[in-house]
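Input chain follows. Return structure tokens only.
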Amino acid sequence: MKWKKIGNNTNEILEDENFYISYNRNTQTPIFCEIFNAFSGEEVTDGEETALNANNKWYILTGDFRKEYEAAFPQGLDACMKVYNRFKDEFRNNWSTD
């Protein structure tokens, strides 16, 4: 199990056949956030995030949760979902689609 660098090297990914986890150390797109906030009425901020993608949904946590997901990854999707559920109340990102 190893994080693979993808894209512009700020992105890393752990892949399984049925799900993957991505880490982005800088998602800053201030102009887009300002536009989205103006039209949606929500307060969206960008920055560091760790995202679990499974079942066509994004489970995104704001911050670096690579160590927690690395520990859970070998046990499969259920263990990774437990990581997300443990932290989502405090760190759920507005871009999550769960």
